[in-house]
Amino acid sequence: MSSINYSERIPNNVNLAEDRTLQRALEQWQPNFINWWDDVGPEGSTNHDVYLRTAVSVDPQGWAQFGHVKMRDYRWGIFLNPGDASREVHFGDHKGQKVWQDVPGEHRANLRRIIVTQGDTEPASVEQQRHLGLTAPSMYDLRNLFQINVEEGRHLWAMVYLLHKHFGRDGREEADALLQRTSGDVDNPRILGAFNEKTPDWLAFFMFTYFTDRDGKFQLSALAESAFDPLARTTKFMLTEEAHHMFVGESGISRTISRTCQVMNELKTDDVEKIRAAGVIDLPTIQRYLNFHYSVTIDLFGADQSSNAASFYSSGLKGRYEEGKRTDDHVLKGQTYKVLEVQNGQLVEKEAPMLNALNEVLRDDFIKDSIAGVNRWNKVIEKAGLPMRLTVPHKAFNRQIGALAGIRMSPEGKVISAAEWEGRKDEWLPTPDDRAFVASLMGRVTEAGKFANWIAPPVMGINRQPVDFEYVRFG
Ligand SMILES: [Fe+2]
Ligand SMILES: [Fe+2]
Q1: For residue 194, how far is its CA from the centre of ligand 2 (angstroms)?
Q2: What is the bridge-based pairing of β-strands 472-473 and 346-353?
Q3: pLDDT at 59
Q4: Domain of 270?
Q5: 438 and 198 in contact (C-beta within 8 Å)?
């Protein structure tokens, strides 16, 4: 089951050839996918040979193979982690029952919605990143961008397979619609807010892959617990690929900071104008980008109290992050969780039923995970002997969703007036001037082993190749 059949048009480890109807339906969807890739995938990349990893097995040891391929010829396919015949639902009202191989009728609408919402984010990010290749700071970074793009394409395949196999005609219609919505489109946008934002430059790209791909990690982890076994097995394999995306973000920001600190020490200055004049990104601008991407991303977890979240959990559709490692009863009835709200101009904590607060639980797990990497960035600054530190803003800062939506709040968590917000928001969120400055640094570097001035080289290359390896052969 874990070996992947590459002799078929659609590589898969789900015995697709045995289900002719399904195979035909997916083979009809495939050219639409390729058209979508040609239309809104990485711009100007058609003739490049890119050193990509391709999934060849779902065995954790040696699941991927590396080689130069044209992205259009990337073997997108359908890979599920191996099944476990004895697997049981381990949370919610169905705890202890056998997991489901098919969709129960009463959960059909909710499961379809969960899969469509997840599936929609995958092509969205490819669309958001489509121009970045034209300003890649190195061949190494360009390759990483393309690796992420093809894998997000594969994640779309993963969700489309579930829709086609388990949801009949409306599943096929949803699969078509996934190729019709477009990130940022006024008439037919992507479903979630953060996936309609622009990713205009590489600082935004690294922040996106650090924070927003990490949202993906937490959503996928929660779905990997699902009682609907095909969804659990699919998302488990997607998580294997996701780790690299977050690595690209974390190391990209780390290298940016490292180069900035080097210049600050050379010039013995923390004057933003002087730092910018030297062609590197000042730390306050990095902090503002961080504030933006962090706040937009934590909105993706949804309203802090949600009856949908409760029913998704109780009915076994979506668990918590690392459900199996938790020591409570995995039913959560009668338990409570702290959520925030504003009372008389002050933020106050209040207890909400835990089941209704599961979006907040997942958001808080995400926050913990995010902060760990920010602390690693601070180590880079500390090692350079500089006093500034990056922080994540308060979780009520710049929120658009839930009880905290629209509240004027400083990054430290103080409720402020609309006038104070207007007066100070340029200290806290990227300004048009910041974005124009960052954009001014974005120039394409195509020579192997060379890096743009604003970013340090990585410590090592990909798949033990040297840093100056020819990661992209420009055709
Ligand atoms: Fe993804
Ligand atoms: Fe990703």
Answers
A1: 14
A2: unpaired
A3: 81
A4: 16-473
A5: no
Residue 97 CA to ligand 2 center (angstroms) comes to 32
The H helix count followed by the E strand count for the chain is 13, 5
- How many angstroms separate the Cα of 247 from the Cα of each of 59, 127, 192? 21, 20, 23
Please write the tens of the pLDDT for every residue from 180-220.
999 999 999 999 998 999 999 999 999 999 999 999 999 99
C-alpha 209 to ligand 1 mean position (Å)? 10
Q: How remote is the CA of residue 413 from the centroid of ligand 1, in Å?
A: 31
Is position 1 within any domain? no
Residue 96 lies in a domain: yes
Tens-digit pLDDT profile for residues 294-309: 999 999 999 999 999 9
Helix (H) or strand (E) holding 130: none
160: CA distance to ligand 2 center in Å?
16
Q: Is position 266 within any domain?
A: yes
- Separation of CA 78 and ligand 1 centre (Å): 14
Provide the domain count of the chain: 1
C-beta separation of 312 from 332 below 8 A? no
CATH number at residue 370: 1.10.620.20
Q: What percent of the chain has pLDDT over 70?
A: 99
Among all bound ligands, the one having the nearest atom to the CA of 243 is 2
Asked if residue 378 belongs to a domain, the reply is yes
Which residues are found with C-beta within 5 Å of the ion, ligand 2? 213, 216, 242, 245
Which of 101, 220, 94, 83 minimizes the C-alpha distance to 159?
220
How far is residue 193's CA from residue 171's CA, in Å, rounded to a whole number? 23
**CA-CA distance, 114 to 355, in Å (whole number)?**
18
Nearest by Cα to 141 from 54, 184, 205: 205
48 in Cβ contact with 444 (< 8 Å): no
Please report which confidence band the pLDDT of residue 1 belongs to, taking 50, 70 and 90 as the band edges: very low
Scan for tokens 């990483």, then name that residue. Answer: 144
Q: Calculate how far, in angstroms, residue 238's C-alpha sits from the geometric centre of ligand 1.
A: 7
**Residue 259 and residue 454 in contact, taking contact as beta carbons nearer than 8 Å:** yes
